[in-house]
């Protein structure tokens, strides 16, 4: 039987990402279906679980729709405000907490979940 490469870690084609902005994607992480946020910044990426550390709710106000104010992501439920480049909360009820990071990498024309290195 020929070996095949798993594409389960592929999230989205790099060509489908904006140069700058936020994209919501679904991924299987640790065997669980998760909503993640990918912040794109001119070829750089930061990815986070779509969960506010304040109350465990999703950050979007509708699936894939986010509030952004002066370059910061704002939780639609309670107004917690996060820096997009590092996920740190700079205002609101969970100030000082951070979004949970999801490791991603660009490879073979796709944004993929980063594989743990041995």
Quick summary:
The protein is mainly beta and 118 residues long. It is 0% helix and 42% strand. The protein is globular, with a radius of gyration of 15 Å.
Strand % is: 35-45%
Overall mean pLDDT score? 90
Distance between the termini: 26 Å
Number of helices: 0
Helical residues, percent: under 10%
Low-confidence stretches: 1-7
Largest sheet: 4 strands, antiparallel
Task: Describe what this molecule looks like in 3D.
The protein is an all-beta fold and 118 residues long. The chain has a single domain (13-112), classed as Rieske [2Fe-2S] iron-sulphur domain (Rieske Iron-sulfur Protein), CATH 2.102.10. Helices cover 0% and strands 42% of the residues. It has no helices and ten strands. Strands 5-6-7-8 form a four-stranded antiparallel β-sheet, with no helix packed on it. A three-stranded antiparallel β-sheet has the order 1-10-9, with no helix packed on it. Strand 3 (32-41) and strand 4 form a beta hairpin. It is globular. It starts with 9 loop residues before the first strand and ends in a 5-residue tail after the last strand.
